[in-house]
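Hi there, hope your week has been kind to you so far. Please have a think about how the structure follows from the sequence. I've dropped the whole record in just underneath, so have a look:

_____
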Amino acid sequence: MAISVSISHITPITLFYLLLLLLLSSTITTTTTTTTSALNITSILSSFQNLTSFSSLLCSTSVAPDLTRRDPVTLLAVPNSYLSTSPSSDLTRRLPPSSLGDILRYHVLLQYFSWSDLRQIPPSGVLVTTLLQTTGRVHSNFGAVNITRDPLTNSITIQSPAPFSPSNVTVLSLIKTLPYNITILAVDSLLVPYDFNLLASETRPPLGLNITKALIDGHNFNVAASMLAASGVVDEFEADEGGAGITLFVPTDDAFGDLPGNVKLQSLPADKKAVVLKFHVLHSYYPLGSLESIVNPVQPTLATEDNGAGSFTLNISRVNGSVAIDTGIVQASVTQTVFDQNPVAIFGVSKVLLPREIFGKDSAGVTSKPGNAVVGTTVQPPETSPSPENSAGFSGPASHLSSPPGFREEITSKGGRYRMQSCIVTVCCIGLVLVV
């Protein structure tokens, strides 16, 4: 006898909606995980009681703000018990904050290393750039560190690349890792760069630079000088000379004259005009050599600090033998050095740096005309020069993790969208088949 089984149409429809809900839940979870990983280092350190002293040093020396704008990094953190004993305790007691800050910058490696990456480092070692190298306050490559691994014990040692460097540290353990952005390693002492003048910051007299006067003396910067003086932001720039210093990109008078007619810079409200001026300033001292070999091409500006991470950033690279600065809608080049004395560097640039957040499409700073481009300039993406650590010849697992911030996430995000769209189409097809 044949047995007939009838399946209600409610069952496949219900199954279809369940599959769709599961897909959306998975997408939300992925998005949440990506957002959660965007944590800054100091907030991570606060959850570890044995790193409270080191975290306090980062804040008191003004290094902490630099860390929130760096990605990827590997931080060498010294636990409380090691920081309170010699020689680390001697350094923390007698050094001024400026010198101690530079030593802490030497503990910020501008490359991500997982624990497995460290285990695969060749015995000959790997040369890695640190945050200190980007300040221009060290000779040669003494702002870099050499990471070596003992093949017998697998112990990891970090020291200056200079021969017979007296200062070195041993990695104790892995504290935290957020692939592929942040790794925190515990080390057994503070690491001092080779030939580092511990008293340099103490004996160096305050600069007392008058930025407006320096621009007028440099000629061809009269428009920028008058705008800075009228806005009052120049006082803020001069107050920021301490710590990591500042780097200003100042448009020439010709650059202001070449602004497209649909860009109404002078008609901006005072607060937005101040943001545009701050968009021309990096909160770190970069001499020209450091700009030409900058490790992290996407750089935050003083405007970033006022408006949030990821906004008002500049993409700095080397193009055709000169330093190129890309805002997303304008690409300028460094034309001259106006002033360069640690901790302040001032460079003349060929164009006014227009932030896309203000002068992008349909923004208040642009008067749109039918058929016209937003700024009247087609910007080609600048070539990104290889970072120093990639040019060091290391081809191990960590070498592919030095992409600019957002690059890896952008690829992942696009791939995720395509996968999600494919899954939705597949589920819809299954649902239609089941219904029919």
